[in-house]
Amino acid sequence: PGSIESKCIADNGKSMKCWKDEEDVYFPVSYLKKRFDMTGKLGKDGSTFELYTSYAKMRSPDSTYDPLGPFGHFSTYSVETRDRVRCVSAKTDVPMSTQWDPIPYYYPIQISQYGLQHYSRMKLDSISNKSEASPKDDVILGVNSKEWKGAAGMHETTERLFFNDEQMGKVVNISAGAALANAGAYVYLDKSPDLHVISFDWKPYEANSSFTVLAKMKQDDLLVLINYVYSEGNGKCVWQEEERISDDYIVQKPKKDGQVSYSYSYIGNSPIGEWSTVTRDLLVDVARALSSGDNRKKDDNVVLHAGDLRLVSLGFRGELTVKQKITQRREQHSHAFYAAADWLVKNQNDRGGWSVPVERSIAERKLVLPPGWHSAMAQGHGISVLTRAFKHFNDEKYLKSAAKALKLFKINSSDGGVRGEFFGNIWYEEYPTTPGSFVLNGFLYSLIGLYDLSQLELMIDENDETMRAKIQEAQELYSAGVRSLKQLLPLYDTGSGTIYDLRHVALGTAPNLARWDYHAVHVYLLKWIAGIEKDEVLSKTADRWIGYAYGKRAKHN
Amino acid sequence: PGSIESKCIADNGKSMKCWKDEEDVYFPVSYLKKRFDMTGKLGKDGSTFELYTSYAKMRSPDSTYDPLGPFGHFSTYSVETRDRVRCVSAKTDVPMSTQWDPIPYYYPIQISQYGLQHYSRMKLDSISNKSEASPKDDVILGVNSKEWKGAAGMHETTERLFFNDEQMGKVVNISAGAALANAGAYVYLDKSPDLHVISFDWKPYEANSSFTVLAKMKQDDLLVLINYVYSEGNGKCVWQEEERISDDYIVQKPKKDGQVSYSYSYIGNSPIGEWSTVTRDLLVDVARALSSGDNRKKDDNVVLHAGDLRLVSLGFRGELTVKQKITQRREQHSHAFYAAADWLVKNQNDRGGWSVPVERSIAERKLVLPPGWHSAMAQGHGISVLTRAFKHFNDEKYLKSAAKALKLFKINSSDGGVRGEFFGNIWYEEYPTTPGSFVLNGFLYSLIGLYDLSQLELMIDENDETMRAKIQEAQELYSAGVRSLKQLLPLYDTGSGTIYDLRHVALGTAPNLARWDYHAVHVYLLKWIAGIEKDEVLSKTADRWIGYAYGKRAKHN
Ligand SMILES: [Ca+2]
Ligand SMILES: [Ca+2]
C-alpha cells in the first residue's frame, strides 16, 4: 500500500504538497521547520529522519555549585573566537568587542567571561594533571645565541649583542632597521602545531621597535605575518598592511607570493624603556587578523583550532633588548585569567563599576542606555573573576575590588546603578533601562557573583570588620535577589519555552522569547541556584523547562 | 516521481512512519495533532487537507461596546442546553447547575449569562422586527370551553366548571383525581413544532395539584410526559417516574407503549391558593428530562432544537382554577431575562453579593473556596443584567441592586470580597482565592459590568445624589481595573497563545494555558475594552493574539 500525492493547507495559508496513505496525511518537514522553528536532520544510521524542537543541548550542572570551582561549562567557551570579538588587545591582553560599535572597545562582561573561561580550563587541566604549573611540554628557545639569526636585509644591517643583564640574566641587545620590510633579528620557532602560544620578556627603547611572528597555515601553506607595532591603528586593533601607491592612493596589499601581512596594535603594557612580558596566542591573533577585512560580514569570522597553523619564526626590529628565553607552549590560561582580573582591578571606577563605553539600545530603540552604563551582569561576573583571583593569586587587591563592586547593586537604574524593580520586587539589571528590561540570564549570573563573594567568610581575617561587613552585604544582596527570583520566575515561563526578559510588560509588546541556547542557559543557571538553595520548586521548574526543549508543553485548561 | 516509506523520530521519541520524496520528508498529521494540539480535516471540496492551529473561531466585536445593547455574541449561547445545567427551575425560572456539585444549585454567573443570552436575542429580534412584543405568530388556546376535555379516566371523574373571574376573566375550575395516572382536564395544543413554549395563569388549591405537558418526539414518535409536581424531588429538579414494585423495591419505569414519563419539581412561584403565571419552554424541559438518567455521563447530554418535538396536550389534575387562555409561542426571551433579573434582585445578600453555595477548588485543591464565596464575574455579570433590566423594565429596584453589587469590589478576597492584588495591582477575582488566581476572562467581564453601571449617569435623576455617587464609584472601580489590565496584560501572553490565569506565579507551577475557546474570549473582551478605551496597545495586543490562532508566533531573540 503506497501513498498518493495530495494537497494540504495550514491555517488558511498557501497550499503545499503532502502525501496521503490509508492511515494518515503527511506534512512536509519544511513546513514544520518554518512554523515551529524546528530542526531536522538525517540520523547517523542514514535511515531515520530526526526532528528536534530545540537545536540546543540542555545541560545540568554535574554537581553543586562551587564558588571557587570551574565556572559552569565556560571551559567550553571560546570568547576569543566570537565574531563580535575584534582581538585580544596586545596592550591589556584582554578581548575587545565590536558588538555594538565598529571601533573595538572594552566590554567588561566579555572580559570577565574570558577570564572565567581560562580559569575554568586551568582548573580542569589541574584536575586532570595537565597543569601549566608543570609545563613538561613547553619548549624553550633562544637560549643558545646561535639561534638568533641576523638577516643582512635589503635595507639595513641587523646587529646583535649578547650579554648578561643584572636582573634578567642572558639577554640579546638588538639594533635593526625599523621598517617592516626588514626581517630584523629572528629565532626559528618549534614546528609543533600544538605550541601556538609564545611568551618572552623584552625592553624596547623606541616607539618604532616591533616584533613579528610568522605563521604557516596548514590548509594552504599561506604564510601569515603578524607585525606587533607601536600604533593605535585608528582604533582598529588589527589590520591588513596597506601599500602606498601614491600620496592619494592607498590600497590593502593583496596576498602575494603566498604571504599576507597584518599589523597588530601594540601600545606596550609597560612604558618604552622598561621590561615587559609578552604572551600571545597566535591561534587567536592570526584568526583575528584573517577576520579583519574592512567590510567583513558575520560569516567572514575565521575560527582556528589547534593544528590549523604552525609557528615559523619570531623576529625583532628597532632598538631593543630581549631575554634569551622564548617560551613556546600550548595554552596561556593562567596568563589570560590574570589579565582579566588585572583589567578589572585597574579599570574599576569610583562607583565600583565597570562601565560600558558604548551606547546600548534595545527594543527598537525604545530603551536606550547612553555610553557609560553599568550592568549587574558585569558586576556579578567581575566579582566571580575577582573572588577566584583572590584565592588563586592570594592577593587582597582582588578581594577589595570585588567588595567595591557591590555598591552599584544598591543604586537604582535611574541613578546609574543596576538595581531595578518589577512591581516592587528588586532586580539586578543586565541592562538598567528605564523602564526596566529584567533580563533573566544576566540577573542569574549577577546572583552567582554575589554568592561567590558571600562565601568567602572563612578566608577573611577575623578582625577585618570592614571586609566582613562587605561579605555580609553580598549575602544580603544575594538573598534579596533570590527572593525576587522565586517570585518572578514563573513570569518567564510560556508553557513551551522561556522569555528572555520582561521588557514586554512595560512596553506592551509581544514577549521577547528566548532562543533555545538562551533557554539552555536559563536551565543551567536555575539548576545552580536551585542547588545552592536546595529549592524543590526551582529545581522542578528547571526540569519542566528541560522538557520544553523536547516538545513537552504545559497543559491547557 | 513518487515517495518512499521512511522512518522518522521526533525529540528522541518513538519512531513513526513518514514518507520521503526528492524534495522533503513528510510527517504524519497524527503527530502534529498530538504534539501541537492542532486540528485537521478534509476541506469542503474533498481534495485538500486543512490543518488548524486553533479549533476556535476568533471573533471581534462588530462595533463599539453598547452598555444597553446585545451582550457580545451571547445571543448565540445556549445556557439551558449545557451539560452542566440540570434544569431551568420551575420555581424561579432560572437555570440550576450541577457543575461542581451533583445536587443542582443556583450558580449566579450562569443565571446572569442566561439572562444576558435572552436579552441579547430579544434585542436582535427587535432589530430584525421579530419582537415578542408583536406576537403575530402566537397561538391562543383554551378560550373556547369545548377545548377543555374531561377524560372519564380509569380512576376518577374529572369535573370542569366554566365562569368569569373578577380579575382574570374567563376561567375554568377543575376538580380531578390527583394521581399522575389520571389524564385530568386537558387541552390539545397546536401541532406546529416551532411553538414549544407554553404560558398560562393558574391557581392551585392544594399541593398535589399538578399539570402535565405531553410532547411527541419527531425522530421516533416517542411520547414524553412532563409532570410538573409539587415536590422537591430530593433536590433532583427533574427525574424519571419510579414504579413501586414492593415497599423495598422501587425501579425507574422503562419506556412502555412508546411513552416515557418524568416528574419536574414545581414548588410554585406563588403560594398555594394564589394566582401565578407559568411559562415553560418544553424544548428545554424535555431535553433536561431526557438527560436526567441517574448515571448519566457528559456525553449523554440531550440537546434539542426547534422542530425536534411538537406539543400534544396540556392537562391539569387536583383542585385548581386556570385562565381560559393558554398561549403557545416560539420563544420566551423577555420572560427569561425578567426571571434572571428578578432572581438577582431577590437573591442578593446584605453585602451586595450573589454567593455561590458550593465549594470551588482549583489547582488540584491547592486553592479552595469554601461554599458561600463571591465572584467578581458574578458581580459584573449581575450588574450587566440589572442595568439592562433597569432600562428595559423601567424599574429602579434593578438599578439599586446593581449599585449594591459594587460593595464587594472594594473588599479583599481574604475578607470574603472579590478584590485581589497582583504585586500591588488591584484585580477583580473570578475566584477570590488566597493566594490569588487572577483569571483573565472573569476580570474582563467584571470590568464590562462596572462600565455598564458607570454609563447610566444620564438616566439618573439629577437630585439623586446617592445614586450619582454610586455611578461615580463604578466609574472609579472600572478605571482602576483598566489601569491594572494595562499593566498586567502582557503577563498572559506566551508569544503563541494566552494564559488563562496567573495561579502559576504564586504556586510556582507551570502556567495554566488557555484553550483556544478561552483564547477567543480573551480576544473578544480585549477588543471591547480597547474600543471603549480607544487604546492602541490593547487593540494591537488583541490583533497579535488573533494571529497566534493562525500560527503566527512572537519572535525569539
Ligand atoms: Ca546576555
Ligand atoms: Ca470562567
Description:
The structure is a homodimer of 557-residue chains. Chain A is α+β, with helices and mostly antiparallel strands and 557 residues long. Chain A is built from eleven helices and 26 strands. Chain A has helices at 29-36, 108-127, 282-290, 333-346, 376-393, 396-404, 440-454, 465-488, 503-507, 516-533, 536-548, and strands spanning 4-10, 15-20, 25-28, 39-42, 48-52, 85-88, 95-97, 139-141, 149-150, 159-165, 169-176, 185-188, 197-204, 210-217, 223-229, 238-240, 242-244, 250-252, 259-265, 276-281, 309-323, 326-329, 360-362, 367-369, 419-422, 425-428. In chain A, strands 8, 9, 10, 11, 12, 13, 14, 15, 16, 19, 20, 21 and 22 form a 13-stranded mixed beta sheet that branches. A three-stranded antiparallel beta sheet of chain A has the order 1-2-3. A two-stranded antiparallel ribbon of chain A has the order 4-5. In chain A, β14 (210-217) and β15 form a beta hairpin. The radius of gyration of chain A is 27 Å and the shape is globular. The two termini of chain A are 40 Å apart. The structure holds calcium ion (CA) (2 copies).
